[in-house]
Each structure stands twice: as structure tokens, then as C-alpha cells.
């Protein structure tokens, strides 16, 4: 084990077992807060057994506790939000007040009750629905998202963010694009920063059943956040502290595609300690989103274990520990082109190679993730809290090729290589901060140091018998067989030196002798690549939230020091201002942030160094002239927005966004595999808007709507990284996560009868991601990827030979009313006769990669859930039943098509699931 990792683990054990003795009051750690209080009457006498409720009507958060014999009460592990706190006691009138929790510094309140009639009604006003915060964000608590019908069981946190947060474009395999960027998202799990990718093809996510609340920051990020900041997802996990009577649940479900789940969670503890543990598992026949609507070769399983331990050591010292382990195994879904693959089995270096059926592609992946994150918290006086948290997190990724590597051959435009990979990403570090709250100031000073250990091992070989052909025919088409251009003439072929291809305008690549030893179709072997680096990052920040009358100012500065394959230093000011108009329940806000954009870590070494290797460069399809190591970039982003409450039943919040990024990052993918590489474009410009509207509980109905329109304009050239092929004309283009408009509407209704069911409903509309590989016709605009135009009987035509028949079927192409099938398609079609219900083909002469690119067709998906939380009217022990339908109309639609960065994937067909639970 690396010395630095040992030191981090040692420090964690010192913190956990070397401190103090139990105390009186509990404290929150990480990114959560605490409310302390005392209930008295008008004379100052204490009132025990008063019922105290803390509620945020917008997020759905609600907790109830009781004052003790000394009249004291406490709420710990509170997400940082405003709360409406009400107190009722027998024989007294109700007391209510609004409390803002925006720091880990405990908030102390007093509740004085006067003698009068008791009331249990919680009065919510318009002022309870708005926050005087300069940063646009979305808050959702477990009470709301637990009843959301989610598309993905294996990446439920990503599905939750996609459905509930504005500015998020949905993509396949748990990916989501926040505010025009690909995966530029960071997670803060109880204060632990995680900036590495969390989709199901990179890592295993924390299970949603362990989450109490999330806050998604889509505005300009405060100074404490860095690395990947298009979206910052703050997660507060569930805690067992204060749960003096153990509670928990056991559930199991079964549904479409043979999907079966099982989960157990348990909360238990006391006033000064607690434990929450959750274990769940999944087995399904549709783990990833496949390139065919028909589901096959798509099995996968997953297991998660999460444990949170809280312990109060003294009146001022506490510890908090998160432990998480997850393991997933899954197949790479096949297309029909991956079945019964024909390839050279012998004689590949001669004039008469022998072809045979080498079987179906059978590529698989395994990911193991563990996370250890302790936090020590000390309260210093009445106004300060100190947090110190070492952490270590590791993703181990293993990718396995087909048993017969020759079966990994895909269409020529998709996959020419086979690859096996073992890589690991270990992130060890420490975060620490000091919060001070007094008067108008809410100050936070902090630091984060992390060291990411990247270890990559790849084994590659060529499996296409025509990708590196020594010979071509007279039309410059490559032919299988042969091992040297000198053999061509005797067989009636032309040596493939590139001259004939250039003269005829063919895309055939000249024979590369460097690849011959690694061409399995010509008797070659495997090429091995081993890469490693340590990425060291240090961040220092100071921020202050200043409340002055109706004004609120967020002022901060952050310094990032990045030291990986390249080095970057940057000072990053963050400024925000909000003004509250109390009379109308309006908040106006402006904000600005400068951020350091660091490269993605996944396959960073291979992407940075592979294009400089004479063997790897053609296997990775590197773009000519692209430099080596990916350089960190910088971003300037501006936000202007408002929040408006209409009475107590509706609140709307929105932002206009403008972001400029120099060195804009994205990903490229290797063929039909989940192996992707970070790449670096010269710059990007991202304007747009995001909007969210919430209807808190109104006569048992709650609802929210999120909508956005965010452009993602990228500007060539590609300056680093492997594998991209777009934007070579030098003109700006819409990258494949650009979406003109998307919207989610969620309705949730509790039938107003005792022990009645509830209903949840989602409508998700997507106008469609950019799809640059869609065939089109254009001869007038240089900013077009349509390719060379052809004519058919003197009329504009489209050449379709670059697509296999199955790919034409995947795109839903129809020529003159005849639809393509996996085995029968078209070589060409009149531009006026080529149509599709799955992809949007620009009219002839109108395609433009920047202004009017081809796209996936718009789609509306509908999800429904129906549940009963207490089937048999139990008191302490309850049975629940839940029925969920995803894509209940069975919409036939794509996420993307031959995306340079994602491939082809269909949305989930109709999936029905029944879940039975026991709660105690």
C-alpha cells in the first residue's frame, strides 16, 4: 500500500479511537447543521414533552422531536436550508419561528409558549418558500424523492438529479450533462468531496436508500467547491443518532427484464450516538442502455453496503464515519452487428485468408468501489465549529474482451480493436474547515488536499482484417490477407501506400507496418500499455456570507494548485449578491465564479500519452496534430436569476447562465465498449436558462416542474486526447450533449383517506441531443458534417454506405417508405425520401453543425408509481406495496446515435416493477 494512503488511514484511526468521552449534546458533521432549543412558558419555566417540528415545505423535509425533562430539544444532521420550526404543548398556544441553517455552527433558539388553546396545524407562508441566497440550487428530501419513479435502479442518484434538477440533459447509462457540460459534476457526501465520474460505467454510486437529502447547486459555485462545478450535488446521508428505538425496513422487488432487488436498512442509537446501515443488491437482464431496443446480452448485478456511525465524545467533540463498499458486474450490450461475427481464422498473411464464424461478442466489466470517510468535529465557543476529515476512496475497473478476441470486431466505422483493461483510481486526502457565525457574518475558511493514484494497464490488438491492409483493389478498397505490399501485384491488387486512395478521394488509410505485429487477423499478438501518475491537488478558500438588511453578499476566493501530468495554479474569485423584497416574497440575485477546470482522471494517462505512440495512435483513432498531455483550463461563468413565491402554494426559481471555458473537456469512446477517454477542445461557450417551480403540499398534492434550454457550443481544434473525429473543419459545433430544451413534471398525490394509497407521476420531455453521425445532405455550408454530396438521377442524394444495415435500422431510417432492418438496408437514398422517427434529419441544404445540427428526435416519457405504505393498518410494524412503471407508453426512442463520445443507446422499454416492504 502506498505510504500516503497508510498515513491517511492511520490518521483516521487516531481520530476515531483516540478522543474524549461521551458528552451531553450531539453535533452535526460535514455539510449538515444543528438546531438546539429550549421550550419554556411566558414565565421562563421549562415545558417538557412539547412536540417540536422542523419543516422545509419546498424540499419536503420534516422532522418531529420532543423536549426532554429539562425542556431541551435538538435536531442534528440537518441539510443546510431554512426551516419553519413550530412548538406545541398541551394547554399552550403554538409557537412558530423561521430558522436559517447555513453552517455547521449550531443554531440555538428559544420557544416561549403562552397559555391558550393548542393547535397542531403548521402555518406555512410565502416567506417560508423563498431563500435569500445568491446561488441557484434545488433541494429535495427523502420524503419526496422516495416516491419518485426512477428510470435506473443501478444509478438511482443520477436518475434523481436528472429528473429533479433544471439544466440537466439525460443521457444513457446513468450519465447526465449538467448545464451544457459532460460530467463536470462534483459530489459532496457528508462533506467529503468526490469529483470523479459517478455513472455506472465508471464507478458505483452511493445507494439512494442511504440518502436523507440532496442539494443540487446549479448556480455559480461558492468558493468551497472546485474541480468539477457545473453541478455540485451535496448529499446528506441518513443517521441513526437519536433513534432510541431501532427502526428499519426490509424490501424486495421483481420486474421486467428479470430485474430483482433486495434491501435491508436499520437505524439505531441513543442521544449521543447512532448507527445507520444499509445493504442492497440488484440482478437484472438490462443493466446498461443497449444499442438495440430489443434487450439481449445485457445482464448485470450489483451489491451495496453503506454504514454511517455517529458518536458524541464530549460536549464539544464528535466523530462521524461513513463506510461504503459497492461491486458491480455487467455485460457490454451487443448490437445485431455483434452476432455471428465473421473474421479471418487462418491464412491471414497470405492471398487466400480463411473466414469463419468466431461467435458473438462477449465483453464484460467489473467495478469495485470502497470509501472510508471519517470526520472529527469540534465546537469552539458559541460561534465556531472546526471539521477535519481524512478520506480514501478507490474504484477498481476491470474490462474483459470476448473469449475469442476476433469476435470483438465491429463495423468498420465503430470498432477495429480488441482491448482488455485493468485500471484503478485511488483518491486519498483530507478536507478541513473552520466555520464562524456572528452578527451579519457567516465565514468559512477551509482547505482540501487530495492525491489521486492512477494505475492503467491495457492490452490491445487489431481485429479488423481490412483496417491495416497491405493491398487494395483498383478502387482503393482495402482487401483482407497479405502481410506486405510486395505481395499485392502478384494477386492483381495495388500496394496500399496511400497514393491511390488520395487520388480517388478514398478514406482508406495507408498500410502502417508498425501495426502488423499486433494484427490478430495476420498472425500478430497483443500490444501492452502501462501508465501511471499521481495527481496532487491542493485547494485553499475563504468565503463570507454577509447579511445586511434585505441584502445578502456571498464573497469568496479560492486558490487551486493542480500537479498531475501538467501543472496549473489559479486564483478564483467568487461573488454573489441577493436582494429580498419582503413585501412581495421576491429574491433577485447575481453571481460570478472563476473556476479551474481540471482534466478527468479516468484513462487520463492513456489519452494523454497514447497519441504519441506509433502503435496506439492509429488504434485509438487519434486526430492528426493533437498534442499530448491534457492541460487544465479555466472558466468564467455568470448567473442572473430570481426566486418568487406566489402565496403559500407556489414558488418559482430561475437563472440565466453564461459560461466561457478555455480548454473545454469531453470524452471519446473506444468502439462498442464502455472504455472512454478524456479529450480537450480549445474552448466552449455555453449560454442558457434553467427554471424550477414547486407546489408544496396543497390538499395532499405536491408537484414540481423543472425546465431548461442550454446550448453547448464547442470550438476546434481538439488540443489533446485520443479518438475524436468531429469539428475538423475548424468551425464551431454543437457537441453531443447540447439540447435545446428539456422538462420534467412530477405530480404526487396522497389519497385523503386513512390508510389510502399515494400516486406519483413523471412526464419527461427531451428535445433531443445533437447526433452528428445522422446522414444528411448539404452542399452550401462549410460547417457541415454531411459528407460529399451525390446525385441520383440528377437529384440530391445521400450516400449511406458508411452505415451498416443494422446502424440504419438503429437510426430508424426509411427510404421512400421502406424501413431499414438489421439485415436489409440502403446504399443510397434520395435526400427528399430519407426520413426517420428516431433521428431528426435536417432538410436538404439546411444542415449546420452550429446552428442546425442533426439531432435525436424529441421524446416524451411517462413514468408512474402507486403505493400503499401501510397495507394492514399496523401501528409499529407496517407492510408496504409499491408498483412502478417506467416508460409506461413503451415509447420507442433513442438517447443518442453513433455519438463520438457515447455510441448508440435506446431508452428503457416499458418496465414494470412490484416492491414489497416490511417496516418496523
Rg calc: 29 Å
Number of helices: 7
**CA-CA gap between termini:** 42 Å
Low-confidence stretches: 4-24
Rough outline: elongated
Class based on secondary structure composition and strand pairing = mainly beta
What would the average pLDDT be, to the nearest integer?
A: 91
What is the β-strand count? 53
Helix share bin? under 10%
Largest sheet: 22 strands, antiparallel, barrel
What fraction of the residues are assigned to beta strands by DSSP?
over 45%
Write a structural description.
There is one protein chain. Strand 29 and strand 30 (551-563) form a beta hairpin. The chain is elongated and about 110 Å long. With 920 residues, it is mostly beta strands. Residues 4-24 have low confidence and may be disordered. It has a 22-stranded antiparallel beta barrel. The chain has a five-stranded mixed beta sheet with strand order 8-14-15-12-13. A four-stranded antiparallel beta sheet has the order 3-2-5-6. The chain has seven helices and 53 strands.
Short description:
The protein has 920 residues and is mostly beta strands.
Provide key terms for this protein.
single chain, five-stranded mixed β-sheet, mainly beta, 920 residues, 7 helices
What's the structural blueprint in terms of helices and strands?
Blueprint: H1 3-17, E1 32-41, E2 51-56, E3 61-66, E4 72-79, E5 82-88, E6 95-100, E7 107-113, E8 137-141, H2 142-145, H3 156-164, E9 168-170, E10 176-178, E11 181-182, E12 185-189, E13 192-194, E14 211-217, E15 231-237, E16 247-255, E17 259-269, E18 273-284, E19 300-312, E20 317-331, E21 342-346, E22 354-357, E23 364-380, E24 384-400, E25 417-438, E26 441-462, E27 471-472, E28 494-495, H4 499-504, E29 527-548, E30 551-563, E31 567-581, E32 586-597, H5 604-609, H6 616-619, E33 633-646, E34 650-669, E35 676-698, E36 701-710, E37 713-721, E38 733-734, E39 739-750, E40 758-766, E41 790-792, E42 795-799, H7 805-810, E43 813-815, E44 818-819, E45 828-830, E46 834-836, E47 839-840, E48 855-856, E49 859-868, E50 878-886, E51 894-899, E52 903-906, E53 911-919
Parallel strand pairs: 1-7, 12-15
Antiparallel strand pairs: 1-4, 2-3, 2-5, 5-6, 8-14, 9-10, 10-11, 12-13, 14-15, 16-17, 16-53, 17-18, 18-19, 19-20, 20-23, 21-22, 23-24, 24-25, 25-26, 26-29, 27-28, 29-30, 30-31, 31-32, 32-33, 33-34, 34-35, 35-36, 35-37, 36-39, 37-38, 39-40, 40-49, 41-42, 42-45, 43-44, 43-46, 47-48, 49-50, 50-53, ...
Amino acid at each position: 500500500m502506498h505510504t500516503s494512503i497508510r498515513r491517511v488511514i492511520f490518521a483516521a484511526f487516531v481520530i476515531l479511537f483516540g478522543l474524549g468521552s461521551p458528552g451531553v449534546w450531539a453535533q452535526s458533521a460535514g455539510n449538515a447543521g444543528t438546531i438546539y432549543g429550549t421550550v419554556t412558558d411566558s414565565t421562563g419555566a421549562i415545558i417538557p414533552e412539547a412536540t417540536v417540528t422542523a419543516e422545509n415545505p419546498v424540499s419536503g423535509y420534516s422532522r418531529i422531536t420532543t423536549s426532554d425533562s429539562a425542556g431541551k430539544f435538538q435536531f442534528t444532521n440537518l441539510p443546510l436550508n431554512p426551516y419553519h420550526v413550530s412548538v406545541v404543548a398541551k394547554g399552550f398556544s403554538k409557537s412558530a419561528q423561521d430558522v436559517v441553517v447555513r453552517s455547521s455552527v449550531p443554531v440555538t433558539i428559544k420557544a416561549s409558549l403562552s397559555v391558550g388553546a393548542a393547535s397542531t396545524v403548521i402555518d406555512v407562508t410565502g416567506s417560508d418558500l423563498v431563500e435569500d441566497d445568491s446561488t441557484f440550487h434545488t433541494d429535495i428530501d427523502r420524503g419526496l424523492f422516495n416516491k419518485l419513479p426512477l428510470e435506473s435502479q443501478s444509478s438511482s442518484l443520477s436518475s434523481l438529479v436528472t429528473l429533479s434538477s433544471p439544466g440537466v440533459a439525460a443521457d444513457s447509462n446513468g450519465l447526465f450533462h449538467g448545464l451544457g457540460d459532460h460530467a463536470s459534476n462534483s459530489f459532496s457526501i457528508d462533506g467529503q468531496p468526490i469529483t470523479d465520474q459517478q455513472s455506472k460505467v465508471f464507478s458505483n454510486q452511493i445507494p439512494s436508500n442511504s440518502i436523507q437529502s440532496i442539494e443540487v447547486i446549479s448556480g455559480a459555485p461558492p468558493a468551497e467547491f472546485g474541480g468539477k462545478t457545473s453541478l455540485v450535488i451535496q448529499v446528506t446521508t441518513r443517521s441513526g443518532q437519536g433513534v432510541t428505538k431501532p427502526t428499519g425496513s426490509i424490501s424486495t422487488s421483481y420486474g421486467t427484464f428479470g430485474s430483482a432487488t433486495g434491501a435491508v436498512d436499520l437505524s439505531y442509537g441513543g442521544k449521543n450516538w447512532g448507527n445507520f446501515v444499509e445493504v442492497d443488491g440488484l440482478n437484472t437482464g438490462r443493466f446498461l442502455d443497449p444499442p438495440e431496443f430489443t434487450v439481449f446480452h445485457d445482464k448485470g448485478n450489483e451489491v451495496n453496503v453503506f454504514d454511517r456511525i455517529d458518536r458524541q465524545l464530549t460536549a464539544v467533540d464528535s466523530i462521524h464515519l461513513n463506510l461504503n463498499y459497492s461491486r458491480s458486474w455487467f455485460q457490454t450490450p451487443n448490437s445485431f452487428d455483434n452476432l455471428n461475427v465473421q473474421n479471418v481464422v487462418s491464412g491471414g498473411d497470405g492471398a487466400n485468408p480463411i473466414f469463419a464464424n468466431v461467435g458473438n461478442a462477449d465483453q464484460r466489466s467489473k467495478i469495485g468501489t470502497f470509501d472510508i470517510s471519517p470526520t472529527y468535529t469540534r465546537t469552539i465557543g458559541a460561534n465556531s465549529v472546526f471539521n477535519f476529515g481524512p478520506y480514501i476512496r478507490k474504484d477498481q475497473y476491470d474490462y474483459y474482451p470476448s473469449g475469442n478476441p476476433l469476435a470483438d470486431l465491429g463495423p468498420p466505422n465503430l470498432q477495429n480493436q480488441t482491448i482488455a483493461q485493468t485500471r484503478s483510481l485511488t483518491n486519498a486526502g483530507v478536507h478541513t474547515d473552520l466555520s464562524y457565525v456572528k452578527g451579519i457574518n457567516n465565514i468559512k475558511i477551509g482547505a482540501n488536499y487530495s492525491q489521486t493514484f492512477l494505475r492503467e494497464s491495457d492490452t490491445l490488438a487489431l481485429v479488423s482484417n481490412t483496417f491495416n491492409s497491405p493491398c487494395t483493389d483498383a478502387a482503393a478498397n482495402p482487401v483482407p490477407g497479405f502481410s506486405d505490399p510486395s505481395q499485392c501485384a502478384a494477386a492483381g491488387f495495388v500496394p496500399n501506400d496511400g497514393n491511390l486512395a488520395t487520388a480517388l478521394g478514398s478514406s482508406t488509410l495507408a498500410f502502417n507496418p508498425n501495426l502488423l505485429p499486433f494484427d490478430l487477423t495476420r498472425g500478430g499478438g497483443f500490444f501492452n500499455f502501462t501508465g501511471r501518475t499521481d495527481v496532487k491537488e491542493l485547494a485553499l478558500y475563504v468565503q463570507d456570507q454577509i447579511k445586511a438588511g434585505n441584502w445578502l453578499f456571498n464573497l469568496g476566493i479560492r486558490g487551486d494548485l493542480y500537479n498531475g501530468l501538467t501543472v496549473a495554479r489559479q486564483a478564483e474569485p467568487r461573488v454573489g449578491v441577493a436582494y429580498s423584497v419582503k413585501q412581495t416574497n421576491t429574491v433577485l440575485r447575481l453571481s460570478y465564479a472563476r473556476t479551474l477546470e481540471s482534466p478527468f482522471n479516468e484513462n487520463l494517462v492513456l489519452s494523454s500519452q497514447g497519441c504519441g505512440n506509433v502503435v496506439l495512435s492509429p488504434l485509438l483513432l487519434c486526430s492528426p496534430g493533437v498534442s499530448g498531455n491534457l492541460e487544465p483550463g479555466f472558466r468564467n461563468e455568470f448567473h442572473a436569476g430570481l426566486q418568487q413565491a406566489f402565496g403559500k402554494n407556489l414558488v418559482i426559481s430561475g437563472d440565466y447562465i453564461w459560461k466561457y471555458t478555455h480548454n473545454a473537456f469531453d470524452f471519446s469512446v473506444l468502439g462498442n465498449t464502455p472504455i472512454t477517454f478524456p479529450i480537450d477542445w480549445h474552448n466552449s461557450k455555453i449560454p442558457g436558462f434553467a427554471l424550477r417551480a414547486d407546489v408544496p403540499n396543497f390538499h395532499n398534492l405536491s408537484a414540481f416542474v423543472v425546465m431548461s434550454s442550454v446550448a453547448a457550443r464547442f470550438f476546434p481544434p481538439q488540443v489533446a486526447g485520443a479518438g475524436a473525429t468531429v469539428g475538423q473543419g475548424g468551425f464551431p459545433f454543437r457537441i453531443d450533449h447540447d439540447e435545446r430544451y428539456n422538462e420534467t413534471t412530477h405530480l404526487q398525490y396522497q389519497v385523503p383517506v386513512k390508510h389510502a394509497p399515494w400516486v406519483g407521476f413523471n412526464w419527461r420531455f427531451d428535445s433531443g441531443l445533437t447526433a452528428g453521425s445522422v446522414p444528411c445532405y448539404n452542399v452550401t455550408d462549410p460547417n457541415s458534417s454531411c459528407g460529399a454530396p451525390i446525385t441520383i438521377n440528377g437529384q440530391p442524394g445521400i450516400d449511406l454506405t458508411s452505415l451498416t444495415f443494422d446502424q440504419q435500422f438503429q437510426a430508424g431510417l426509411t427510404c421512400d417508405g421502406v424501413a431499414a432492418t438489421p439485415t436489409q438496408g440502403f446504399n443510397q437514398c434520395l435526400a427528399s425520401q430519407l426520413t426517420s422517427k428516431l433521428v431528426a434529419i435536417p432538410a436538404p441544404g439546411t444542415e449546420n453543425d452550429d446552428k442546425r445540427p442533426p439531432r435525436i428526435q424529441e421524446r416524451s416519457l411517462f413514468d408512474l408509481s402507486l403505493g400503499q405504505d401501510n397495507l394492514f393498518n399496523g401501528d409499529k410494524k407496517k407492510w408496504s406495496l409499491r408498483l412502478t412503471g417506467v416508460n409506461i407508453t413503451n415509447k420507442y426512442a433513442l438517447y443518442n446515435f453513433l455519438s463520438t463520445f457515447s455510441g448508440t443507446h435506446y431508452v428503457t422499454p416499458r418496465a414494470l416493477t412490484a416492491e414489497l416492504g416490511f417496516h418496523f
